[in-house]
Amino acid sequence: MGKGGEQGGDSGEPAGQIRFYTWEEIQKHNLRTDKWLVIERKVYNVTKWANKHPGGQRVISHCAGEDATDAFQAFHINPTLVQKFLKPLLIGELAPGEPSQDRGKNSQLVEDFRTLRKTAEDMNLFRASPLFFSLYLGHIIAMEVLAWLMVSYFGTGWITTLILACILTTSQAQAGWLQHDFGHLSVFKKSSWNHILHKFVIGHLKGASANWWNHRHFQHHAKPNIFQKDPDVNMLHIFVLGDTQPVEYGKKKLKYLPYNHQHEYFFLNMVLVLSISPCTMMVHPGFSLLSSFPIATHCPIPTYLCVFSTLVMAGSFQSALATLSQRFLESHWFVWVTQMNHIPMEIDSEKHRDWLSSQMAATCNIEQSFFNDWFTGHLNFQIEHHLFPTMPRHNFWKVKPLVKSLCAKYGVQYEEKPLGKAFVDIVGSLKKSGDLWLDAYLHK
To answer: Which InterPro entries match (predicted)?
Structure first.
């Protein structure tokens, strides 16, 4: 090992010296009790610090033994600030003769992608529009207020209840897309403001946990559609996914459910889980806007007034009916939109691809239109979102041509389809995987 430079971290090297490492040595440190990663050719020992990682210890552990440069840039809106936390963890650098990329990745593709990201930064595509997000939040608030006024002026007739359920479904679905924006730190320049608004929207408009969302969702973004690393595809007790898992579990004679019928029970199973989740409020979810005031005022009175007035005006039966209808409709909306970009794509074990290739293999886009943008919360630009998760969604269409050009240059598939076909492909993909499982279960 050559030496020189500056040393830190847990290596025990004397101050003023630095060790150089080969990829062969670095890749050995990918265990739960021993985690190294590389960022811009610098080697960090994150073993002890992983449990303190704000994004959760699992997401950083998934990159252990690898070059995490692109993941690091993708998830942090202020890399300079984060470097202060990394500095004490520094244990060395890649040896001068070692390539910057591990496992034989195409170094030119990686460099071109990083150049593309720099171009997007120079175009100010990571700068959010305050007007866009203000209007977006405004239209959610307007729907919640409208729901409250409907109960106040029109009572609780059947027609009013049905209309109310549709309004609240729309409001809650759009609030779900908005919390996604804050969760990815794509609205404000300061992480703290994003975190505060994320907790407000998901916790008080949606009734879910911001920490739970962060824990799961960042793993999904770091390693999409990778078994054991993406929690969104670790669903053996309900589904078998992709082409390899069904055969593997069929051979092992694993059968928690009749997977050959998973394309038939998909819409019901996942929707039921969401519809009866503990997060469901026992009053109109739309009125959760009012019950969120105490987070700012530290006064519980508005919460009690909200619950009391809702029950008095709506009545318990109508309130329960509107709540269950809203949850059922919203769950359908959420499940079909969030699964259309990933389930029909490659789902497999870790292949150690570069950032661009790994995201493209697991992700597809839906055709752009005003309705599709609004209906999906711009998740129809799932490719651009996965490549640049901190980019404000209203800029995805601007970076899309650059991404398509880069993919064409290296022969990386850029898949885009109509919204209806995307929904149909979910069912077709599940049926294909279920048939593979049944064949292996019966004959192998």
So the answer is: Cyt_B5-like_heme/steroid-bd, Cyt_B5-like_heme/steroid_sf, FA_desaturase_dom, Fatty_acid_desaturase
